[in-house]
Amino acid sequence: MIRRSSLGTLLAAVALLAVGCGSVRTPVDPAPVHDVREPAPASVGGADTSGGGSSSPDCDTRSLSPSSGISAGSTMATIKQRGRLVVGVDQTTYLFGFLNPATGEFEGFDIDIVKQIASALFGDWHNHVQFKAIPSSARESMLSSGQVDVVVRTYSITCDRLKKVNFSSVYYQAGQRVLVEKNSGFTGLNDLRGKKVCAAKASTSLKTLSQSPMRPVPVSVNNWSDCLVMLQQGQVDAVSTDDVILAGMARQDPNLEVVGDRFTQENYGVGIPKGHEDMVRYVNYVLDNVRNGSAWRESYNTWLLSQLGPASPPPVSYQS
Amino acid sequence: MRVVAGRGVDQMTSTAMRPAAPSGPVPEAPVPTPPPETTPSGLAGLLELPATAVRGVIRSARTTPGLLTVIAVGLVVLTLVTGLVGTIMVQQKSSTTEDLIGHREPLAAAAQEIYRSLSDADATAAIAFLITGTEPPELRSRYDQDIARAGAALSRAASDVSSDAAAKVNVINQQLPVYTGLVETARANNRLGYPVGASYLQEASNLMHATILPAAGDLYQIDTAGLESQQSDAWGFPWFAAVLLVGTLAALIATQVYLTRRTNRLLNVGLVVATGAMVLMLLWGSVALVVQAILVGNGQDDGSHPVDVLVRARAAAVQARGDETMTLVARGAGGDYEVDFQKLAPQFTGLLSEAKGLVTGDAANQLQTAIDNANNWLTTHKDLRAKDDGGWYVDAVKEAVDTSVPNSAATSFANVDTALGNAINDGRQSFVDYTDDGAKALTLLAPGVAALAVVAAGGVTIGIRDRLREYR
Known about the structure:
The complex is a heterodimer.
Chain A: H1 2-21, H2 75-82, E1 85-89, E2 92-93, E3 97-100, E4 105-107, H3 109-122, E5 129-133, H4 139-144, E6 150-151, H5 159-162, E7 165-167, E8 172-174, E9 176-181, E10 196-200, H6 204-210, E11 217-221, H7 224-232, E12 238-242, H8 243-252, E13 256-259, E14 266-268, E15 271-273, H9 277-292, H10 295-303, H11 305-308
Parallel strand pairs in A: 1-5, 1-6, 10-11, 10-12
Antiparallel strand pairs in A: 2-3, 3-4, 7-15, 8-14, 9-12, 9-13
Chain B: H1 2-20, H2 34-38, H3 42-61, H4 64-130, H5 137-157, H6 163-192, H7 196-235, H8 239-263, H9 269-330, H10 335-356, H11 361-389, H12 393-401, H13 409-441, H14 445-469
């Protein structure tokens, strides 16, 4: 027995020595997960100031005077001959331009404007409109390459953009605000210093954010709806853009609210390719009827009244 | 090993020498010295042992009986080692071949199933989004089926312990629940009529294409490479065992030639039996291994190789289908998807015609069905693109997703997918059949080699003992 126990002691001593000499072993990590990142929408980017500037008028942003005439060989005549108006719209901005999943139809305030233009050209818009859902960043290129006749897509009239495309008269006035979680404590852009704020690529909102003295961290995405996804997933702290777009997002999620004052003024116009001045005048003629008749209010009441309260059509003046 | 053998030789030599003892007196002189040599205790004595043994062998080999004994022991050891090496080699080949069917090929199949199921799930989710109103139940169940299959295949793929494959499985395992979560969020929003559903779907699709599918593709490549390398292991030529066997045979024959010259007797029965056993081992082994190698090779040529080509064709087709539907989902902004489709189309038609030269029988019929339907699909695709670009979006969608229309893209694609699935199953069956036959060719070879080696060792012992007796 004594021999055995002394042997045991010796073995224990050797074992301890081995432990002392060798590297310390640790249990195997059963779940080696190092970074868990939220999935991201396609092509998320950062700050970008290519968004065509703010609406501050250091140029003449007024449009050409309206004209209802359709002469042979005009842009409108070509469209009529083709039988359909090709329009660049948004399919993700609730209330302004979106695809109703239940019907598969495009709907919203912008879409109503499209229908008015098509109805003026063809008498009835049904079967005469080809919608193309385009990202914000593709608005100018779709117009200049002639892939669409007009763009009606929360398109702010700015001096930078006027160098590349034509705009109709203003059909809606919006202003940039901030969308946040209801109990986040944020009350406006001033609370968002160093916070992540989402905006669509090549939008004026993104440029305004990038240049804000509050220095928020801009996160840019292809479509406005992607911003809502990122806000819901907690990947950004706020979304900042025109109040109408934010209102549409707040409608889809009761936990969100639009806060702060308008800190820009955005004048929405219909984008039309350079060189199609006849089309600009024609669209302005249609928009005059929309603003002055009942169409504007009907559309506003359908989509925006409950979110934004009563409003009237914007005042318009033309280049002399 | 060598020490033990040496000591054995020493002992045998001394017993054999005692009656004869005609060796010269000179070597006897240092005999008094060994006792102190063997007695040193501890490490020094242990180290001395081999040297002592070698000296003993050399000393005794200077006499004919001593030499005979050395030869006998050498031959016995050689045959037994050959038997051991041969048995282990055959055993390994046999289990490598069995493992091809039981482990390696199922891994590659699981990897391709993951890739296909997930691509198909993604395309199906996109189609469900294209269809207005409530999602049709058959699409819902197809998506569910895809996700379930991918999950089952993942758990099989997870049994591969190689770190490369495990890393890829890890990526897929971590991201797949996130993907399905996003798809369900998209569905919930879609049902509420909120356009943010589309954005969730696109985020899900982005996750699938940017993270999950690349990992699944890598996993398939890793598993296919693993299968191919194990196939070459299975039919590889066993150089070591072969050299050993031929060397043993040569040694046996040389011994008999030496004995015939030395004793003037033509045959030594023991050695002839030993030689016969080794020749039988060589013949049986060569025939069995050649047959096995040919069958495993057939399993690759007619099984796993065409399957690989078909799998790649199917993967390209299902991706192209995803592009086709995403072009429509993106509705006007889907130019990149169409560009991708145009890249994939020649890829899968090319792979299909490549496969044509590789398969026969029923698989060839299935392949022909797939090729015909692929051509229909491409024609329909051109037509539906023209419709979408021309402004007839609703018609384009109908042509793309309606399975009740005979030549719709949905129908043609489904036929391509099913036919390729069948052809792949046929190919896998050929692989299993050939490889299994290959494994069967090695039946009883391992114990056979062991038994023959023992017979040969016995023959050598008896044969040389007979000769040694003549020295008494």
